[in-house]
Design goal:
The chain has about 350 residues and is an all-alpha fold. About 75% of the residues lie in helices and about 0% in strands. The longest helix is centred in the last third of the chain and has 49 residues. It is globular, with a radius of gyration of 23 Å. The chain starts with a helix and ends with a helix. About 45% of the residues are buried.
Length: about 350
């Protein structure tokens, strides 16, 4: 793939990822904060990816992977994402979601190291550690005021559990997309996972949520004086945003790898902070502290650490690739010299 196109794709992957919690936060402020209903927008977006165009010729081949593998991965993804969205709903803070969600980066790196047997250099580990340090700063030193009557502690626990399960999707999906025995395109992988998840979640909603729709949904919207029209518009935008994010995510996994996709996830923090500050920040201080959507000095430090960690990882990766290329060239030359010497020694 063209490096420029790949670069733009990576940027919009991070941008759409940062948009997810902001749109969900907007729904929450209108009284629409049922995590599973908002997660359904993500599954619809993933399912829509099935009909999106392939980025290369190899992606146009028919799917040969057994459906039971896709079903198992869909259940794992559904569980992880549901916990992430539930944690966001409990905490009611897009900032906390963005911070903890960036923990995907070190978790994906560790999983790729042990399960995919990938070699990660010291410089790359240092970049990942800087991103991990940035991820923990807000939880350790940030304020705990939320957008509403949220529970930071419980929301954090649920989010971390979801992030662990969600992080496992990265290396598993990469191994599926790069598997030589089976074939499936990135768009079709996203589509099947979204379709399976949508079936499970729809059944659950019909059994447990629909009978309590007025109490759990309508009553909360009325209590918060939310606008039905605005909620519908934001929900549709959320679906479109999630479709683009999923499409770019699975293509990044195929063209790059799980660790790089995890690094890009961390960049969502920088974009998320900026957009959250612009859209939701209330500069007025209260007895509870500063609005959690405002940029503070500790968040500036987090942004700096993430940017430096990203640059360190990227530059080290480039140096590593050049070193491996030179090593292969030297190895080829040495083999040619040995072959020439053997031919000369033969009578």
């Amino acid at each position: 793939m063209n490096p420029i196109v790949l670069g733009f794709g990576a940027f919009f992957f991070a941008l759409t990822g940062a948009g997810q919690p902001l749109f969900i936060d907007s729904l929450t402020r209108n009284g629409f904060f049922n995590g599973l209903v908002t997660y359904m927008a993500n599954l619809i977006g993933m399912a829509v990816c099935y009909f999106m165009p392939a980025v290369d010729k190899s992606s146009k081949k028919p799917t040969t992977i057994p459906q039971r593998y896709l079903l198992g991965l869909a259940i794992l993804d559904l569980t992880g994402q549901s916990l992430c969205n539930l944690g966001l709903t409990i905490a009611r803070s897009s900032q906390l979601f963005t911070i903890l969600y960036s923990l995907c980066t070190p978790m994906v790196a560790l999983m790729s190291r042990f399960f995919l047997k990938k070699k990660i250099s010291e410089g790359q580990y240092m970049g990942i550690f800087m991103i991990f340090l940035a991820s923990t700063l807000q939880v350790v030193g940030g304020n705990t005021k939320t957008s509403g009557e949220g529970n930071i502690f419980l929301g954090s626990i649920v989010l971390i559990c979801g992030v662990v399960l969600h992080s496992s999707i990265y290396p598993i999906s990469e191994s599926i997309l790069k598997n030589k025995e089976y074939h499936i395109s990135p768009a079709h992988l996203s589509g099947w996972l979204g379709a399976y998840g949508l079936i499970f979640l729809t059944i659950y909603q019909c059994i447990f949520l629909y009978p309590k729709w007025d109490t759990l949904i309508v009553h909360e919207i009325n209590t918060h004086h939310g606008s039905i029209m605005l909620i519908c518009i934001i929900y549709i935008i959320l679906i479109i945003n999630n479709a683009l994010h999923s499409y770019l995510f699975y293509n990044c996994l195929k063209e790059l790898d799980a660790v790089v996709a995890g690094i890009l996830k961390a960049l969502q923090t920088v974009i998320g902070f900026s957009l959250s500050h612009i859209l939701f920040c209330d500069e007025c201080e209260s007895d509870d502290g500063i609005d959690p959507d405002c940029i503070t000095s500790i968040k500036v430090l987090i942004i700096i650490l993430i940017i430096f960690g990203f640059l360190l990882y990227s530059l080290t990766s480039e140096s590593k690739k050049k070193g491996e290329k030179k090593s292969k060239e030297y190895e080829t030359v040495e083999n040619e010299i040995l072959l020439t010497e053997q031919m000369q020694e033969e009578p």
